[in-house]
Protein: Perosamine synthetase
Organism: Aminivibrio pyruvatiphilus
Amino acid sequence: MFLLLDAPNLGGAEKAKLMECVDSTYVSTAGPFVPEFEQRFARYLGTEECVSVQSGTAALHIALAEAGVGPGDEVIVPAFSFAASVNPVLYTGATPVLVDVDPETWTLDPGLTEAAVTPRTRAILPVHLYGNLCDMDKLGRIAEERGLVIIEDATESLGGTWKGKPSGTLGNFGCFSFNGNKLITTGGGGMVVARDRERINHIRFLVNQARDASKGYFHPEMGYNYRMTNLEAALGLAQMERIDLFLEKKRTFARIYREVLAGLPEVEFQKELPGAQSAWWLPSFTLSGGVIAELQEKLREKGVPTRRLFSPLHTYPYLRDCCRFSYPEAERIFEQGINLPASTVNDEESTLRAAEIIRDAVHSMRR
Ligand SMILES: *Cc1c(COP(=O)(O)O)cnc(C)c1O
């Protein structure tokens, strides 16, 4: 049995495209593949335009900067996410305000979000965690009523949808990552989309050091060097050829785990809301009874790689001042939860076998 947790799926097309870069000497930010990849990605999302950047973190940072978020502002961020969801808020000088997640979806709780809004709140940063969509209707309504910007962290949810609309196109800004463990990879890279065309044009200007090329090297405002390279875009283009296949695999793996483990009352999978279609980036569940570390060890011995979930952000020393509330759900999910192997290199047979091993291990741990 051969199973990987979240390794990338690379092949001949990727190799050939990379060689084209080397042969043409276009390895840096100039070259044909960057605009081609952007157009391809925009078409996939059904948007007009998007801007490629160096990472998902850079995508979030530039979206926050473009939204005008800065010192004195507050940005609502779920307490249960990867550190890269919250760090870009700190880069801008704004204050992240951590809010607990919903016990079933593991994503930003809309009721608690509404209660956390203050006169200083500028933006909400929903994270579609492990591919699962947040309640974008409720969050959208709060944002509209309070005049807030929504910046979607769609880094884990590429391919997921809310009422048929792709994640990342549901807020004012959407941010994607092409890190090696995501649905598609460019080695390291990201993408920003925006509802407003002018915003996207300005982001394209900002990520290129805010250079006004019509005046040579003249920079009317502070910019960033966040541009994607031709090498990265080459990988991205090759990966886009197989994105539907990758997504189909993720969904199949998630279905297999849920079906095989369905009869176990102590196991609870992350749930999709009605209207949501998760990208199932990493199928994940909680196991009650305080035995998740024991399960993980048993699975490791049997060749099933798993990973503990993200430590809740409110437990990080540098985010102490961002904790106005309590975070019982983030804590419970972290203490009981696990990610399952779902690399698109895996096949259905090994995934089925892994699911059976997990089922048997959970049975064997009953006291
Ligand atoms: C991967 C990820 C990011 C950041 O992406 P990078 O490309 O690694 O910078 C941000 N948020 C979440 C939830 C992620 O999983």
About this structure: The mean pLDDT is 97. The chain is about 40% helix and 15% strand. The pocket of pyridoxal-5'-phosphate is lined by residues 55-57, 81-82, 84-85, 127, 153, 155-156, 177, 179, 190 (CB under 6 Å).
